[in-house]
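Input record, target 12 of the design panel.
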């Protein structure tokens, strides 16, 4: 890979904060290691790195992301996701295979909730003919993070939301006992309630959702 990440690594390690790292690890249920870089600092260090290094050629993005994903510290994954967002209009058709793999590798809400709406959502806008294939496969996978991605990929679509598809996905997952599935259902409906409140109210009234999904779905409307 002809792209030097060492200056980024040096910057990140020079600003590591072990005390903050402990707090960040605890917040993520002690599942992942951290350098202890708050998001604003991490973004500033990344910005400085790019000012010196420039952005990589699109053909190198997958290799860079794969390398970042191998570091134990979570900040490198955040850098990788930010890179994919910046390059998403240039990385081409096959990037969906990388998105799919990352959704299932060292998964937690912090990676999924960026990958699904910001990357997968963009991809399915660009390649709508692929949407049904992947959604059906992910729903049937039994993997809660792939399923959560199905619920959330339209989160930013607003008026372009395919409500028939959203409803179908939700109804296929309403029996799930998984917290992250129930929470995602409520989140997706709550976000769409800002665009079409009548649809969301009607959907909730005509379908039995979990208490968590129901509460989450109505949060925005109840504040209005």
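The sequence produced for target 12 reads:
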């Amino acid at each position: 890979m002809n792209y030097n990440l060492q200056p980024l690594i040096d910057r990140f390690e020079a600003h590591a904060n072990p005390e903050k790292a402990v707090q960040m690890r605890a917040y993520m249920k002690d599942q992942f290691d951290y350098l202890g870089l708050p998001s604003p600092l991490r973004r500033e260090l990344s910005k400085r790195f790019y000012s010196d290094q420039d952005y990589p050629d699109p053909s190198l993005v997958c290799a860079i992301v794969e390398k970042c994903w191998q570091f134990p510290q979570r900040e490198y994954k955040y850098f990788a996701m930010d890179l994919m967002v910046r390059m998403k209009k240039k990385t081409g058709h096959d990037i969906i295979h990388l998105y799919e793999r990352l959704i299932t590798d060292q998964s937690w809400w912090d990676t999924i909730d960026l990958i699904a709406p910001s990357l997968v959502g963009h991809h399915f806008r660009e390649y709508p003919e692929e949407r049904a294939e992947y959604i059906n496969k992910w729903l049937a996978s039994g993997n809660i993070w792939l399923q959560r991605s199905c619920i959330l990929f339209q989160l930013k679509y607003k008026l372009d939301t395919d409500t028939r598809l959203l409803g179908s996905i939700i109804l296929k997952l309403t029996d799930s006992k998984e917290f992250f599935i129930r929470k995602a259902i409520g989140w997706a409906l709550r976000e769409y309630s800002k665009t079409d409140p009548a649809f969301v109210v009607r959907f909730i009234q005509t379908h039995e959702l979990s208490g968590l999904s129901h509460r989450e779905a109505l949060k925005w409307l109840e504040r209005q």
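The domain at 1-91 is CATH 1.25.10.90 (Leucine-rich Repeat Variant).
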